[in-house]
Specification:
The complex is a heterodimer of chains A (244) and B (717). By secondary structure, chain A is of the alpha/beta class. In chain A, 42% of the residues lie in helices and 21% in strands. Classes of the chains: A alpha/beta (244), B alpha/beta (717). At the A-B interface, helix 5, helix 7, helix 8, helix 9 and strand 9 of A face helix 2, helix 8, helix 10, helix 11 and helix 12 of B.
Chain lengths: 244, 717
């Protein structure tokens, strides 16, 4: 970790912590996976939902949790289809193959019509999110200035993963730390691959600490309508390869 | 002032639940403000917001076009609504076409303004507010009490009952249990809803993006779970780029909730989409398939056209002004009678609702300027209130009594002298031995409910200083003493002390005989003509002997002399130049004493504890707050700070005359804070504040003494 990244990480940790998040610096890939597993077990998590995450793939998080008996559903549509197929997402499936997978998963014989398939898939994924105990995300950027996570997505489901379950865990790669809020936009432009020529992802959600409310007289209470806990796991590139 | 408003004020002040809730709120706000501004440069950040908003509103037509084309390109539908009716109709029609039965709504002030929920409900559609505070207010069948905290006026018992009834459970008053019940009830409504309605805190032109802020997470759910998302957005919310939005976010939550960032900020650019299913790019994958953005005018473009009120569009609806408003702290939001409360509320009400309602809202203003100091967009709310009154006076004319008072008496100084002399005779039956008036007959008695009044002096300052109307020919600095009416007629002894102390400081003070009322009562009531005439009278009287300084004991007068005369004379360059020369010579009493005696040594400690009250117009009007304390310390007094030393004493504006009950409530907090210091003497550098505080302490039979710095110094110099 360069000195600059280390400085950002320190600031980020302090700010996110002050805002009510629990921040953990993982020392290795195993360490990150184990932390999440331990948290899930301690908090009696049976079902988890997961957004698309390169870091999670690299540290083989899903497998790690599944092995321990925790059900993990992918919620990004392409990832979910790949999970159903038991493959890595390739984007090279035919409509017929997709129809078979979704029909099987939803227990309904569906028309191989894209809109029909999408509706069935959306409904199923939405249900997973509503029922899940834990949501797992990756931050596409993290703002040191305020301890803020930036989570993007075009489908909108990234927001459900972040808000609906009672525990939210976010993986942050140290390289994605930026100093200021203004840096986010620059970063978004570099990560948005949209065929329609769109500059920013459809949904960019900034999350700072744990949700609260002051609307019930007498106290400022944590866990208003979102998760009870926000856990953030910082992973740096070297750690991911397991060579601290 | 209106009867309806007087009633509402009375109702709020005597509502025990409300007062309990407000006391709690004040504690919370104090806590919030302490942590909010501890670690940042508020001034430069707020200047940045100001710059962003000025630029955005100036370029609004182009930005609207850019926003529309970008949002449409991303797949959103944009509708431009002229007014409330137009906006509501569009949303209802859409809801009916989509066979919507249930709507979830996240908090939107614009939604309140156009009464969208009521409109949809009337058509038989179920609408649930999802912000917990807003939901509580909906359950109570009320309107939000605060821009940010809609239910801040409720006690825990009231909230417990509302949530118990709504959820069909017997819930106690444990906040956590109530929150859990609320969360569960609301969670199901998102899942069942066919449409989600939100506002937007910011709309970003460069990408056609809506930014929606919530701390509870309700905004994320209301805009993601239902298949249709409708956002109602005021045109003034549009900014050029993401960078500009960042500048606003940096202060928004600090001002509202003492947080560095809101917990959730959702940036939404068009509807949800996916290309994961082979063969097509489809909408509605986990999020809504449709996003409709309703841009609402409802008076905003008209506001933009005016030079006087344009800056009200810079408001980011953070509520900081309400959090520091002493009137709000006494009566809360519903009393104002419309959606937008406090000073900024008066201006917004005038354009977005009706001018008559705005007049009512404005009548509650003490003119203490706390809002201006707290505003992260540097909006000069007090100035706009004055302009609003001026345009109302121009449009509707002044009430007869005020017109006589300003134009036939105030404007002509000898007449005012005569009227006061007559008054000093008439008051005799009511004056107690110690020259205080504690009871007045008939309707006038309202004036002595909160405070005991000083008797009018039989000999005004002008009479007392007949022989000192010009400076003697010496090398000493010449100081013209501008006393203001309260000192001239009610506290001439303070004036005598000023002259005495300044003489001892080696100056040559004199009392220009031609001075008249500064014009403030007329000016702030909207009578610009009388104010301008008085400005000229005073400029001529004060510049005549070419003084080196002009000393004041009434900061209200000082602020008018220093600032308002410049704007009053702006159309007459010669007078304007003279006003400018005058402005540079204005000094507060303590400020001048320090300036005249820079090398005076600190006196030995006197073992006398005093506390200092910051007059609104001295601190926020002309920026003097350290000098009076410095002088007290130099003279050997121990200064103990009171809580909220710069909060208004309740004398400001016309409130003391129009709503004495309200003035009394503001005064009560001040007196409580003074008593809590344990000081024997409270010092202030404003004669009207002396009147209010002395009268209030007298009603309490307090032993605490209240003095102007000049009185204390004259005794101890």
């Amino acid at each position: 970790m360069s000195a600059q990244v280390a400085g950002l990480a320190e600031r980020f940790k302090a700010e996110a912590g002050r805002a009510g998040a629990v921040v953990y610096q993982a020392s290795s890939a195993e360490d990150a996976s184990n932390y999440i597993l331990k948290l899930a077990q301690e908090r009696d998590v049976k079902n988890a939902v997961k957004s698309k995450s390169k870091v999670a793939d690299e540290i083989k998080l899903r497998k790690h949790l599944e092995k321990a008996g925790i059900e993990v559903k992918e919620t990004d549509l392409e990832e979910w289809i790949a999970q159903l197929a038991g493959e890595k997402p390739t984007g090279r499936k035919t409509i017929g193959q997709v129809e078979k997978l979704i029909s099987k998963a939803t227990g309904k014989k569906l028309h191989p019509d894209p809109q029909v398939l999408l509706n069935a898939a959306s409904l199923a994924i939405r249900r997973y999110c509503i029922d899940a105990d834990m949501g797992i995300s990756e931050a596409d950027a993290a703002i040191a200035e305020t301890g803020t996570l930036v989570i993007v997505g075009n489908e909108g489901v990234t927001r459900l993963v972040a808000v609906l379950p009672r525990i939210h865990v976010t993986l942050v790669e140290s390289q994605n730390l930026v100093p200021l809020m203004e840096d986010v936009f620059v970063k978004l432009k570099t990560i948005t691959r949209d065929r329609a020529g769109q500059v920013v992802p459809r949904y960019v959600t900034y999350i700072t600490g744990r949700n609260t409310t002051a609307d019930i007289p007498g106290a400022v209470l944590a866990r208003a309508q979102g998760p009870a806990d926000e856990h953030i796991i910082l992973v740096n590139k070297a750690a991911k390869r397991g060579t601290v | 002032m209106s009867r309806a408003m007087t009633k509402r004020v009375h109702k709020a002040l005597t509502d025990e639940n409300l007062q309990t809730a407000l006391t709690r709120l004040l504690g919370l706000i104090k806590f919030v403000r302490q942590i909010t501004f501890a670690d940042l440069d508020f001034e430069s950040l707020s200047q940045e917001i100001r710059r962003v908003k000025e630029n955005s509103i100036a370029n609004l037509p182009q930005l609207v076009e850019q926003f529309k084309s970008q949002a449409i390109r991303a797949g959103a539908v944009v509708y431009e609504a002229e007014d409330a009716e137009d906006a509501c109709k569009y949303v209802l029609k859409l809801a009916q076409e989509r066979r919507v039965k249930n709507i979830v709504k996240s908090k939107s002030m614009l939604g309140e303004e156009i009464e969208l929920r009521e409109y949809l409900e009337k058509a038989g559609i179920g609408v649930t507010e999802t912000d917990i505070g807003e939901w509580i207010v909906q359950l109570a069948g009320e309107r939000p009490a605060h821009l940010v905290g809609p239910a801040i006026h409720k006690t825990i018992e009231q909230v417990a009952e509302l949530i118990s009834v709504a959820t069909g459970q017997e819930l106690g008053t444990d906040p956590q249990a109530l929150l859990d019940a609320a969360r569960r009830a609301l969670r199901q409504t998102y899942i069942d809803a066919d449409m989600g309605i939100s506002g937007a805190n910011i709309a970003i032109a460069e990408t056609g993006t809506l930014a929606i802020v919530t701390n509870e997470g309700n905004g994320c759910m209301a805009t993601t779970l239902p298949p249709v998302h409708v956002a109602v957005v005021g045109y003034e919310k549009i900014v050029p780029g993401w960078k500009d939005a960042a500048a606003i976010f940096r202060l928004l939550s600090r001002c509202t909730a003492g947080m560095k960032m809101p917990v959730y900020v959702s940036h939404i650019t068009g509807p949800s989409r996916t290309d994961a299913i082979p063969g097509a790019v489809l909408r509605g994958a986990g999020g809504p398939a449709e996003v409709h953005i309703v841009l609402v005018d409802n008076g905003r473009w008209q506001m933009r056209e005016t030079d006087e009120f344009r800056e009200a569009l810079y408001c980011i609806k953070c509520g900081a002004c309400l959090n520091v408003c002493p009137v709000f702290a006494s009566v809360a939001g519903q009393t104002y009678g419309y959606i937008y409360q406090g000073g900024i509320g008066a201006i917004l009400t005038a354009f977005l609702h009706s001018v008559d309602k705005a007049e009512e809202v404005a009548s509650l203003c003490l003119g203490c300027m706390a809002c201006k100091e707290a505003c992260p967009a540097r909006i000069d709310i007090p100035q706009m209130i004055t302009r609003l009154r001026a345009s109302l006076a121009e449009e509707k004319g002044l009430p007869l009594l005020n017109r006589i008072a300003y134009r036939s008496i105030l404007k002509h100084q000898p007449r005012l002298d005569r009227v006061i002399r007559i008054g000093s005779h008439l008051q005799q039956p009511f004056v107690d031995k110690d020259l205080m008036i504690r009871r007045l007959p008939g309707p006038l008695n309202a004036l002595t409910q909160a405070v005991s009044l000083p008797a009018l002096s039989r000999r005004s300052l002008r009479a007392r200083f007949k022989d000192f109307s010009s400076p003697k020919l010496t090398d000493k600095p010449k100081v013209a003493f501008y006393s203001g009416c309260v000192a001239a007629y009610a506290y001439p002894e303070i004036g005598e002390d000023v002259m005495k102390v300044l003489t001892e400081c080696g100056a040559e003070p004199y009392y220009p005989a031609g001075q008249a009322c500064c014009g403030a009562p007329a000016y702030f009531a909207g009578d610009v003509e009388t104010a301008l005439s008085l400005a000229k009278t005073n400029i001529a009287a004060l510049e005549e002997m070419k003084p080196d300084y002009i000393v004041t004991v009434c900061p209200g007068c000082a602020a008018v002399l220093q600032r308002e005369y410049l704007s009053l004379t702006s159309a007459e360059p010669r007078w304007n130049q003279r006003a400018r020369a005058l402005a540079g010579k204005i000094r507060d009493f303590s400020q001048l004493v320090l300036e005249l005696t820079p090398s005076a040594r600190k006196k030995p400690a006197r073992n006398q504890k005093v506390t200092y009250h910051d007059p609104c117009h001295l601190k926020r009007g002309i920026g003097v707050y350290s000098e009076p304390r410095q002088l007290l310390q130099r003279e050997g007094f121990e200064v103990t700070e009171m809580a909220d030393s710069d909060a208004c004493c309740g004398f400001g504006g016309h409130v003391v005359l129009s709503y004495p009950e309200l003035s009394k409530s503001v005064l009560k907090r001040k007196l409580d804070n003074i008593e809590a210091t344990g000081a024997e003497t409270v010092i202030t550098n404003c004669v009207p504040c002396v009147l209010q505080l002395r009268g209030g302490l007298d009603k309490r039979h307090s032993h605490i003494k209240i003095m102007h710095s000049a009185e204390l110094l004259a005794k101890s110099f």
